[in-house]
Design brief:
The chain has 245 residues and is mostly beta strands. Helix content is 13%, strand content 38%. It is built from four helices and 15 strands. The strands form two sheets. It has an eight-stranded antiparallel sheet with strand order 1-8-6-5-2-3-4-7, with no helix packed on it. The protein has a six-stranded antiparallel barrel with strand order 10-11-12-15-14-13. It is globular. The two termini are 23 Å apart.
Length: 245
């Protein structure tokens, strides 16, 4: 069974890791919007954020309102609740909560494995105007893989409104030729290289998780990957991991 998320206490966090990170805000003031901005300074537990994010909407935030904050910490998406301080001048301030929580429950253990991956990526707007056979494919490598998804090197910083089609070959197990995934987080790894955490979409629930206009532009044959394949990959990778130990 998946384990419940374990809280990370503020005392255990290296606050310098947040410097320059992108973060997403959910507020009652803008209930149907995800506001995106960036941390420009860290002072103790206080995160100083850029006012100009999300087309200036961040600068319109009301002082002392409750917010939900999500960002990446050491490659993993985390989430916490806080209250935003909006001074008349200077940077907006978000105090770190006493605890932050992993944003995703990890049902499948990741295995560090480098494999060649071919992929293409797009958002649900660009896929509406581009033919599937005209999409640009790139060749790259995995960082780690699980039955639930993959951490893969990409040449651009992809937001969580992006999706992927991946061709992944694993010797010793047969899986569908192409998999569809959605970006859950992305972080800078090198000077011009990023790592994207991708969740595999499965046949049982992809219609609930993907935008309708995306579904209209992707053939149903791309969604042959199902929960049984996902668990078979998980078992296969864990056997390989045990063989290496």
């Amino acid at each position: 069974m998946p384990k419940e998320p374990v809280a990370i206490t503020t005392a255990a966090i290296d606050h310098s890791e947040f410097m320059g990170r992108e973060l997403k805000l959910h507020t009652g003031q803008f209930p149907n919007r995800t506001l995106t901005t960036r941390i420009v300074a860290v002072n103790g537990r206080n995160l100083m954020i850029d006012r100009s994010g999300s087309g200036g909407l961040v600068d319109d935030l009301i002082n002392n309102q409750e917010i939900e904050v999500s960002l990446s910490y050491r490659g993993e998406p985390v989430i916490f609740k806080s209250k935003i301080a909006v001074p008349k001048k200077g940077r907006l301030i978000i105090p770190l909560a006493e605890n932050v929580f992993p944003q995703l429950r990890r049902a499948f253990e990741r295995v560090s494995i480098i494999k060649d991956v071919k992929l293409t990526y797009f958002d649900n707007v660009s896929i509406s105007s581009a033919r599937l056979n005209k999409l640009k494919w790139i060749e790259t490598e995995s960082v780690n893989i699980s039955g639930g998804g993959i951490l893969v090197e990409v040449p651009a910083n992809l937001g969580d409104d992006y999706f992927m089609i991946l061709h992944l070959e694993l010797e010793g197990i047969e899986i569908p030729r192409l998999l569809v995934g959605r970006i859950r987080h992305c972080q800078l790894r090198g000077t011009h290289q990023f790592c994207a955490g991708v969740e595999f979409m499965i046949k049982e629930n992809y219609r609930e998780k993907l935008p309708k206009n995306l579904l209209r532009n992707l053939p149903a044959s791309l969604f042959d990957f199902n929960d049984d394949f996902r668990r078979r990959i998980d078992e296969f990778l864990n056997r390989k991991q045990r063989d290496l130990e």
